[in-house]
Amino acid sequence: MQEGTFSSHGHCRGTTARGDVFAADCPTRRLLDRIADKWSTLILLTLHDQPMRFNGLKRRIDGVSQKMLSQTLRSLERDGLVSRSVVATVPVSVTYAITPLGASLVASLRAMIDWAETRMPEVAAAQAAYDTISGRSVPEIA
Amino acid sequence: MQEGTFSSHGHCRGTTARGDVFAADCPTRRLLDRIADKWSTLILLTLHDQPMRFNGLKRRIDGVSQKMLSQTLRSLERDGLVSRSVVATVPVSVTYAITPLGASLVASLRAMIDWAETRMPEVAAAQAAYDTISGRSVPEIA
DNA sequence: TCCGTTGGTTTCCAATGGAGACCAGGTGCT
DNA sequence: AGCACCTGGTCTCCATTGGAAACCAACGGA
């Protein structure tokens, strides 16, 4: 019966123009899965500062593998969030830049990152408390 | 040399109080990986509307497996974003609720979801354009 | 000549995610 | 009485994913 209490959520393909991420088969769900991603977030944030080339991104985003970087960049390009331009120089140089559509998402991502960076102490405290109380039953490495 | 051009980003453990998600070994990176997650996002959004029980969440969040639901809920509980309360009723009932810390993150997540639900048409158009232009080299199923 | 740099792709292996079985223990339905 | 089903999970199995590293072509510099 609780389902009915959610008034504003349709079934994705309804009379409303917007999708519904709570529906598994809605395209917005797949979109959410893409943008709610570690590497996508970091790439978009970086490119929002300035356009950058492949190896620049790789250096900037510590720990990303070449595979995930090229893969994620291709997804972002396909989704129209990032543009890719090849300059046929000496060793071919490829520059990535954020698109207006991508830029329109950055504010939200930035807010999420800001939250993570500022609220980390509270989260760490919660983790410590959790691990102390239920430490025996939930060890770090089971 | 480009690294130096990013003035505001430290090496996570610096004089600044905040972390740096761009550093692979920074705890905020792990935190980002948790909150930038499909299921975490949907769970927090749902619990922000009202507290809910396990199977309620499972019904509400279409397509989530029991394993991922319980796993994600435990992570969120450990991070202090969600609280878990067991009521020893008839069949034991477990209620999950969002904490103030979790609620402080929801606005950003909500913005991300809103972006996905409203900008989906533009993304779909970009995908169609991409698939048309480079359709032969990047077929849907390779 | 050999290394490094460009931007990737490919290969291999470990970790993750999903489907579904299984669990306890009580309750309603027949 | 017996059976299915509710609660909230866990466990096992398999497919997909992610990461590390090798490989690639073409060119520049030592």
UniProtKB/TrEMBL annotation, chains A, B:
Keywords: DNA-binding, Transcription, Transcription regulation. Pfam families: HxlR. PROSITE patterns: HTH_HXLR (PS51118). Coiled coil: none annotated. The keyword Transcription regulation applies. One of its GO terms (molecular function) is DNA binding. Residues 26-124 form the HTH hxlR-type domain. PANTHER family: HTH-TYPE TRANSCRIPTIONAL REGULATOR YODB, TRANSCRIPTIONAL REGULATOR, MARR FAMILY. This is Transcriptional regulator. It comes from Methylobacterium oryzihabitans. The lineage of its organism: Bacteria, Pseudomonadati, Pseudomonadota, Alphaproteobacteria, Hyphomicrobiales.
